[in-house]
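Homework-ish question, so no full write-ups if that breaks the rules, but can someone show me the predicted structure for this set?
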Amino acid sequence: MPIVEAHVLEGYAPDAKRRLVRALTDAVRFVVPAPDEAITVMLHDYAAENYGRGGQMRQPAPALPDPEKIVLDYLAAMEAREIDRAQALLGEGFVMTFPGAEPMTSLAELIAWAKGRYRFVKKTYEASEAFHSNGAAVVYTRGTLAGEWPDGTAFEGIRFIDRFELTGGKITRQDVWNDLAEVRNA
Amino acid sequence: MPIVEAHVLEGYAPDAKRRLVRALTDAVRFVVPAPDEAITVMLHDYAAENYGRGGQMRQPAPALPDPEKIVLDYLAAMEAREIDRAQALLGEGFVMTFPGAEPMTSLAELIAWAKGRYRFVKKTYEASEAFHSNGAAVVYTRGTLAGEWPDGTAFEGIRFIDRFELTGGKITRQDVWNDLAEVRNA
Amino acid sequence: MPIVEAHVLEGYAPDAKRRLVRALTDAVRFVVPAPDEAITVMLHDYAAENYGRGGQMRQPAPALPDPEKIVLDYLAAMEAREIDRAQALLGEGFVMTFPGAEPMTSLAELIAWAKGRYRFVKKTYEASEAFHSNGAAVVYTRGTLAGEWPDGTAFEGIRFIDRFELTGGKITRQDVWNDLAEVRNA
Amino acid sequence: MPIVEAHVLEGYAPDAKRRLVRALTDAVRFVVPAPDEAITVMLHDYAAENYGRGGQMRQPAPALPDPEKIVLDYLAAMEAREIDRAQALLGEGFVMTFPGAEPMTSLAELIAWAKGRYRFVKKTYEASEAFHSNGAAVVYTRGTLAGEWPDGTAFEGIRFIDRFELTGGKITRQDVWNDLAEVRNA
Amino acid sequence: MPIVEAHVLEGYAPDAKRRLVRALTDAVRFVVPAPDEAITVMLHDYAAENYGRGGQMRQPAPALPDPEKIVLDYLAAMEAREIDRAQALLGEGFVMTFPGAEPMTSLAELIAWAKGRYRFVKKTYEASEAFHSNGAAVVYTRGTLAGEWPDGTAFEGIRFIDRFELTGGKITRQDVWNDLAEVRNA
Amino acid sequence: MPIVEAHVLEGYAPDAKRRLVRALTDAVRFVVPAPDEAITVMLHDYAAENYGRGGQMRQPAPALPDPEKIVLDYLAAMEAREIDRAQALLGEGFVMTFPGAEPMTSLAELIAWAKGRYRFVKKTYEASEAFHSNGAAVVYTRGTLAGEWPDGTAFEGIRFIDRFELTGGKITRQDVWNDLAEVRNA
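A: Not a homework solution, just the prediction itself:
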């Protein structure tokens, strides 16, 4: 115990199934104090002809993409300043909130603002977490920042955490916290 | 679709079952693009006599406590400076990392350090999220800080996010990020 | 084979469960050529705390009443001319269609019309069938009619069939066919 | 809720599965007041090697044919007077009961009898219902009749209902009610 | 893996359930090379109102008794020469086959025959096994015999094995093999 | 009732599935007094991607071989004195216990010992039973022996029973009981 069975329409790739199995396993670990090797998850696939709701047969829909991959892809694009590639990952209503700035909606705006804060910044990731919460996929990435201040002085090991929301596979919100001000003004 | 069935030993209170149902539902929403009203979760209870593993009958174990409640309880105790009550919620190896400080392990240490940062601080919570990740329960609480600087000046609306880890119902780690330095030094 | 499992919220009386088991068994017999003793139905009850949809716990609703009982009750009340008792079983929009008459909506109208057809009529039921179709419960009752013509002559063994629709436990439609004209005019 | 799972031997065509899903859904609607979109049906297919009864592996049997199709096919053949095609759909012991006639067993007998009733008759179908009841598949078709009396006068809009029983895919019984006498003698 | 679910009518005592869980676990171990702690068995109880076969509700029947207990009880009664108690455990058609004797049907016959073989004999049980095979419960008990020959000489450590068949909780067959002759004639 | 479902990783051949279905059926017959035709077993296969334990996907392992076949193969090889073929079926720690002999571990030892007992012996099998017990597969074969004594005299109809244990598909133990001494010394 416990044993979890999920009944889904067929068509999900092994990768999506792996994420579903992990998410269901973590859901159990959240409440039930069972050792890992006792938590079993079984997925049942159903061909469309084997499933009906409301007396109607239904069509399978593709799995939601891995939000962690999308976020890491976005952060890599931003770090390389590949704006078009980053922009393609954003959804309608996207808004970013950075420490010490009013919420921003455009990447150009962010880049201009960032120029006043540092020459460049690189992220070293410690860990990331992804789950569903209240209608959106949520991704947290945290780690440390390294880079150069406007005056050329280097900095490193500055703590950061980003929180992303994704809907329908697109990033709709980014909230950033970091210790840049602590260190800059130390 | 999808439908999730979880088979658990009996004895979980309705509150624990509610958390399990929510967690399993969120696990599905994480991968499957189904509308909420299509995600069904069914829990099957088993009396100890109805379940065996390795040919042996097993005993049910109590559910893990709600980590969100424990964290909010801890933060309330700290805000009220009820140190004993807060301490009782901490587990072995507890370590706190605050912006601009080296990691701390004792609450007395934290309180002394905080004295130099502000006269007092109150948290206004915007949202909290809880889930299992890699062997621990993780809780994020975020919102804004209000309070008074050492010189008596008031501050408010300062963004913060805390990340907690809990194991066996005890808090073992707290990481804090906030914009205090941004605002203080603005 | 086949085996049918139905997962329902708890609270249904044994009588409702019996009807559900029969209906599910007949559903299988309709498509699968298995001998009766091979068709198994198992009902799983769920306490409200063991079931969630869309992450929310749901409340059980009482079973729909047995439409066959309601119809036979209505026909008995009409035969005894207990109009109030019959009326209480009717739903909004109730309409009756009898052979040789325009559709009627009121029981008084029906009784007046019937006076011109026969002194009295008694139904002998051969069989009744009940099932769900297109949003309503449907009941067929058939058998023979016996009674007296307006001139006092007796008649018997006249074939009839009635079709009823019920929604929410109330009768909303009655269609009648019979051989009264064949026999009367023979 | 509710959720129905049916375990069947593999080999049923999508069309048979669709009928099974609909029948199971209607079985639930008959007793449980759930909205349509809450009634889920899942079919589990079993290869012969995955199923045993009494310790023996069993062979799948083909699904029963759609009785509604057979009945409409029969009625179309009769309307077109394609007697051989109609006869092929009849089973042993077939008996027909029409208003104003003794039960008949041969199609030739019916055709001869009908000659005295009308020159021809065409059916306009309002609806049909099919389900299993007491060992047979039952089909009801109802609507109106149009045609010409023996004297050539036309008639139309005359109410009719037919009840068919099928066993093993063959029609074994037909009971007919209609208002021909009401109208003819009006 | 593997996971076994058994659906049974309610009413079985914990002891019967334990035997069922063990038997199902052993059934899996017979074919699947899974470690013991990976074999899970879950029993689902059904109240009579929650189960139907052939559209009929069925009544639960009591579990079959533990044949191992019955056999050991019988052997103890025979050792103590409590003939009535032993006889009560026998079923119709009971037949015993001992080494060096024609099949016997009555306990008196056995006791008389045994007198010629030894003064008394006591069984030391090494192990017993019980399972179902071909319509009967089968129990094997094996170990060693100790006792006295007719001439008063003692013997011990003589290998034996008994095979019993039980139907409906009564012993219907006993086959005995032992090395008494090997030792006696050595 | 009852109904047994076994969830296994895919890859088992029909023959292994047949043995699993029989073993599960016998497990039920051991405790539940249901008629054979009421005991249904359904196997659910899972592709590796549809199953996870402890959040990890697992690999299927091949089924254990049919121990009855291995034992009968071994006995046939021994009867034909094909020692290499017989030896290949033995596992580490194999030990044989025959009536009137100390336990033996080598086939050569057995053959030499047997020479003193009879010129040759042939087995006629009455029945065999196989099941899992306490970590090993157990096989019983019983029947009668026929052959020739060292002096050339023939014997036949002598009762025997053999008990084998197998682990990992290899024979690790053989215990033999028979009436050779009874008959030889009669």
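Now go work out the reasoning yourself. Hint: Strands of chain B lie at 3-9, 40-46, 51-53, 56-57, 90-97, 120-133, 136-148, 154-167, 170-178.
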